[in-house]
Amino acid sequence: MTLAQFGQYPAARFAIAHISDTHLLASGALQFGAIDTEPHLRRALELLGDLEEPPQAIVVSGDVADRGEVDAYRVAKQIVETAATRLGAHVFWAIGNHDDRRAYSSVLFGEESEAPQDRVHELDGLRIISLDTTLPGHHHGELEPGQRAWLKDVLSTTARHGTVLVMHHPPLPMALDRVSHVIELDGQAALADVLRGSDVRAILSGHLHYPIYSTFAGIPVFTASATCSTMELAGAGRSYGVRDSGQAIAMLHLFDAGAGGMPEAPVTHTVLPLAQTPLVVAHRFAEFAQLEEMTHAQRRELLSRHRDREASDDGRVHAWLDDAAGGLGASGKPA
Ligand SMILES: [Fe+2]
Ligand SMILES: [Fe+2]
After folding, report:
1. Ligand 2 centroid vs 167 CA: distance in angstroms?
2. What is the pLDDT of residues 249-281, one digit of tens each?
3. Taking a C-beta distance cutoff of 8 angstroms, is the pair 194, 187 a contact?
4. What average pLDDT does range 147-155 have in this prediction?
5. Going from the N-terminus, what domains does the chain have, and what CATH number goes with each?
6. H or E element, residue 59
7. How far, in Å, is the centroid of ligand 2 from the Cα of 83?
């Protein structure tokens, strides 16, 4: 189904789900003995099924398994790939500091290896690179000189729609979180030299368990929240706090150059919280779908013009839509 364009921007060419830090454990064990991470991942994938347009790909940016257990990867693979098949989406994995290279590579890729887990994928002209930023046995990250050389070689040719780089450790400063500086990615300036001027359009990271955005060598960096739990940053003097709330995933959208009448190719990263709090307003879908049939002026009249705010009540949204329906012919088409 081709959706009507409501404003200046056409639909994105690529819609990619960004999931991070699932931290699954074998045998139903709980993270920190308290957090059941598997239902949070299932909820994340359920959200993707509720989007108006499903993602073309699911990227998982590391820390798939909390303790690197084979059975945890089996569960992750089964849950994510089942959802991806249902959505018609590809799956691209990246490795994190909690992961175990041997278990990760054998279960997810069928090739047991302790080598850095660097891979290049292609999605309809978009290049997706998984870069292994881990240093086995440690939580901070680093790249071997050979990995930088490999990346430079891969990026020496451009992809038709550019490149998305997935790397668990985010290349950025953590302004509210000095403790995480201890487990940051080392050698960021050397990596920036490789990426500057390349066709990389976005860097997707995780690791921190809270969302933070920056630019790195002029490239947007999007660090996703975790699906497992959330780091508390305003902890009243505690240096390290974890809460079983605030989990989220995100959708990366890549637009073509010229979208919105500008030469740049926009990139957005939209957060989708997992929390299921009470729904206080809901458009009925059949009514919402009328927007597709309206002219731009009719949509402006319905949704942009101020209404009588004093008369606001629970029925307000539906009342607006009923007003709009008055402007539609008996067939439901604009009169
Ligand atoms: Fe993590
Ligand atoms: Fe991590």
Report:
1. 10
2. 999 999 999 988 888 999 999 999 999 888 887
3. no
4. 98
5. 14-273 (3.60.21.10), 285-326 (no CATH)
6. strand 57-61
7. 24
